[in-house]
Give the backbone structure.
Amino acid sequence: MKEPEINRNRLVEDFIRLVKIDSLTRSERLMALALRKDLQELGVEAIEDDAGQKIGSSCGNIIGVLAGTKKNARPIFFAAHMDRVTPGEGINPQVKDGMITSDGTTILAADDVAGMVSILEALRVLREQKIPHGEVGVLFTISEEGGLHGAKNLDLSILPGEMGYVLDSGGEVGTIVVQAPSQVSLRAAFHGKAAHAGVNPEAGINALQAAATAVARMKLGRIDPETTANIGIFWAGNATNIICEEAELKGEARSLDAGKLEKQVDHMREQLEKAAEEFKATVEVTLTESYTTYHLTADDPVVALAVQACEKLGLAPTLQSTGGGSDANVLNKRGRPTVVLGMGYENAHSKEERIAVDQLAKGAQLALSIIMEA
Ligand SMILES: [Zn+2]
C-alpha cells in the first residue's frame, strides 16, 4: 500500500502560525490555548494538568487523548515542548528556496515547533483519510528548556501510550536518539572573611582566590568519550579594596555511564573542599541530579517501531547517542520507554536556526508512519 501523503503547504502554514505565537519558558499560555483548540478540532480530547502551578508557569502541560479505532495496535504517544529559548519573541519567519529561517534578529523556534506541527499534521491526515489507528497520546510540555520541569511535574496518569516519541532533536529525519546522559548540577558557595585589602589583608580570607584555585585544578571539558564537565558561572566580590568574602560557582557534569559520572563529581567536590581548606575558607557544595541516563537498543519495541516506520518511508534510520538531555530522559525514568526523533532543524538556540521544508514534511510523514505501523 502506498503511504498516505501529508499536506506540505498546510504544514508550512501551521509551522509559521505557531512560530509567531510568543512562548518563552514559563509563558506558554497562548501556545497552550492554540494547541488545545487544534486538538479539539481534530476530535482529540485535550486536558491541561497542574504542572504550571507547581513550577510557576502560565499554564500546564497539554495532554491529548485520541481513542483507537483499530484492534491490536499498540498504544503510543508523541511529545514536543511548547517553550523556546531567547531571543524568541516576535519571530518573523521567512520561507525561501525550500528553507525556513528567522529574519536574523531572533531564533526560529523550529525547536520545537517542528515537533508540534508534525504531530498535528499526522493527526489531520489520519482523520481526513479515515486511517485506522490505535490509541495515540499527545503531550505538549511546558518548561523543557532549562530543566525539563514540565515533564518532571507531568500528571502521567492522563497520558496514554505504553511507549513514546519525543519529536525534539536536530539531525535529519531518520535520526533516532536511543541513549542520553545523566546530568548532575553543582553549586559551590565559598565563605571567606572580609578585611581591608591595603590596611590589614592578613586578617582576610579570600573566597574568590580559593574558588578560582579549585576551578584551576579541576578536569573540565571532555573528560572521556562518555563524560563531560563544566563550570559555567562564577560570582564573586564587589570592591577591589576588600578581601573577597563570598564566591559562588555553578557547573555540571554529564555522563552516559553512572560510575564515570560519580567519579567526575567526586573529583570536582574534592578540588572545591581541598582549595577551601588550603585558604582556610569554607565551602558548601550542593549537588542535584538534573536528569537520568537512558539507553535503549534496536531490540526495544519503541526503537524497533521507529526503525520499521523509517524503512517504510525509505528513510535510513540511524540510532544515535546524544550529550544532551530531553523530556525523554524524564519519561524513561518514569517508566515509559521513549526515544527522541530527529526533526531536521539546524543551529537550534541561535539566530541561524533553520529547517528545510523537506525535512519538516518528512518529520510529519514519520509521525504518521509510526502511528500506522504501531
Ligand atoms: Zn527542544
Observations:
- The chain has ten helices and 17 strands.
- The CA atoms of residues 310 and 366 lie 7 Å apart.
- The two ends are 16 Å apart (CA to CA).
- The first helix runs from residue 8 to 19.
